[in-house]
Amino acid sequence: MARKQKLLRNSTGHLRMVEQEAKYKAEFLAKDGLPELQKTPPRHLDSVAKAEYRRIVDTLGKLPLRNLDRTELELYCTWYSVYKNTLIKLKEETDPDEISSFVSTLDKATRNIKGLASDLGLNVNSRMQMNMPEKEDDKPKSLKERYGMTS
Q1: Most C-beta atoms within 10 A of its C-beta, which of 33, 38, 62, 112?
Q2: In this predicted structure, which of 48-57, 70-79, 87-96, 124-133 has the lowest mean pLDDT?
Q3: Through-space distance between the first and last CA atoms of the chain, rounded to whole angstroms
Q4: Which of 59, 46, 117, 118 has the alpha carbon at shortest distance from 88?
């Protein structure tokens, strides 16, 4: 799996001009080269999922999510709806077998929500990971590679 990239403005290392330009181009294509994320929730979502979609879209801020990421966002909202509806049903249930089934569904929904939230940058750890400085390679580099010096 490829290492997640940081935004250029969040990079703390000293990047050569070539590296800065490559990172800027990658950011531009990831952010501005694709259609923006749809602001209105899709019609096929239920009311709980639509409300969560609106909440997420309004709070995304400067995260580079685009319309290609909409499916993941829809899945997140759908699993959130499953979680919330199951929680309501669990509070009303008294049959031990049904309670066990609801707890299993809650567990599955929770795991899916956590995974999708991490992929979308919706939790603190995933956002912090995007801002962590990359580790330097242990291989010795020439002065030209290290400092971008030209003759």
Answers
A1: 112
A2: 124-133
A3: 37
A4: 46
What's the pLDDT tens digit per position in 11-21? 556 556 666 66
Q: How far apart are CA 48 and CA 52, in angstroms?
A: 6
Half-sphere exposure of 82 (CA within 13 A, CB side): 18
Residue 88, token pair as written in the block? 């309501």
- Going by C-alpha positions, the residue among 75, 81, 78, 83 that lies closest to residue 102 is 83
Q: What is the DSSP string of 27-86?
A: HHHHHTSSPBPPSSPPTTS-HHHHHHHHHHHHH-TT---BGGGHHHHHHHHHHHHHHHHH
What's the pTM value of the predicted model, to 2 decimals?
0.66
